[in-house]
Design a protein that fits this description.
Shape: globular
CATH superfamily: Alkaline Phosphatase, subunit A
CATH architecture: 3-Layer(aba) Sandwich
Structural class: alpha/beta
Distance between the termini: 17 Å
Helix content: 25-40%
Length: 313
């Protein structure tokens, strides 16, 4: 059943996202927010796996056999030329992934998060929680600034203690299999050790440390995918996504003109939905895809976002 909310909920997002900063509003807040909710789709669930520092050409059979096999599956959107932000640091890119807008709007242009504008351009978690606060959201990350600066205040479970990639994986499996500490509907994960291997040794499959770390991450992703598949067999409707923030070359990723850096990977997998396979995705497309999958349509979000949903109509 689709519910159409108009004037009665015109101001709910502006109230929800209000704060003391004078940058909290923009022209999009001046429009009437027409909110449509497909209540049947709100029962859907999402897992987003963030892999920091994936160089696209490393997605090979010998280094990442599971992800390589998933990239050629019929029911998946995959690109090895996913566009990253012109500022190729992690802060701007994870901010764009989570808000659905480019850094010129969210104003995160480095890893210091000195003056973010999440108030005017909130994360997709806030839009979803604003529609239905009973949706359980979680974020488990290795790189703690994602939770401390972006998601902790809007997510039901977002631990801020420093943990390694294995602990991210183990906590995620506990969350998904044992519903501990909550039965999550929307889960974001972040693995950071591939980026660390790249900075320490080099972003290349020719570098043993980088290749070995990617292979370990591939195993985590495969096991998480099988967990989602098992949940699908019980009737749960999950969208499975994998995204990276940037690639790398040598031991860095600062050259925005380098295709090894400014292009990375993006996966979206669902057993029965079609994706816009001809569209070349960028960081701002993940948020509108998730909101679309959950059956939410907001004229304010549509006005603000720089991305598009990858789901076919």
């Amino acid at each position: 059943m689709k519910i159409n909310y108009s004037l009665a909920l015109v101001l709910f997002l502006s109230v929800l996202f209000s704060c003391e900063k004078n940058t909290c509003t923009d022209d999009c807040n001046l429009i009437t927010n027409v909110l449509e909710i497909d209540s049947a789709k709100l029962n859907r669930k999402v897992l987003v796996i963030g892999l920091d520092g994936v160089r696209s050409d490393a997605m090979q059979q010998n280094s990442s056999p599971f992800l390589h096999s998933l990239s050629v599956a019929n029911e998946v959107y995959y690109t090895a030329s996913h566009g990253v932000e012109l500022i190729t640091y992690s802060g701007p890119n994870w901010s764009s992934i989570l808000t659905g807008v480019h850094y010129a709007k969210h104003q995160v242009d480095d890893n210091s998060f000195a003056n973010p504008n999440y108030c005017a351009y909130p994360t997709f978690f806030e839009y979803i929680e604003g529609v239905d606060s009973t949706i359980n959201t979680a974020s488990i990350v290795n790189w703690t600034p994602i939770n401390t600066h972006i998601l902790s205040s809007v997510t039901d479970f977002a631990p801020q203690a420093a943990i390694n990639d294995l602990e991210v994986y183990e906590q995620a499996q506990s969350l998904l299999i044992n519903a501990a500490p909550l039965d999550a509907d929307l889960v974001f994960l972040h693995f950071d050790e591939l980026d660390a291997a790249g900075h320490s040794y080099g972003f290349s499959l020719e570098v043993p440390e980088y290749a070995a770390t990617l292979n370990a991450l591939d195993g985590y992703v495969e096991n998480l995918y099988h967990t989602i598949e098992a949940k699908r067999l019980t009737g749960e409707d999950w969208l499975f996504m994998v995204v990276s923030d940037h690639g790398g070359d040598g031991t860095g990723h600062g050259d925005a003109s380098n295709p090894y850096i400014n292009q990375t990977i993006f996966f979206a997998q669902h057993p029965s939905l079609d994706f816009k396979s001809q569209h070349n995705s960028n960081q701002t497309d993940l948020a509108p895809t998730i909101i679309d999958f959950l059956g939410i349509s907001s004229s304010v979000f549509d006005c603000k976002t720089d991305g598009i949903s990858l789901l076919e109509e």
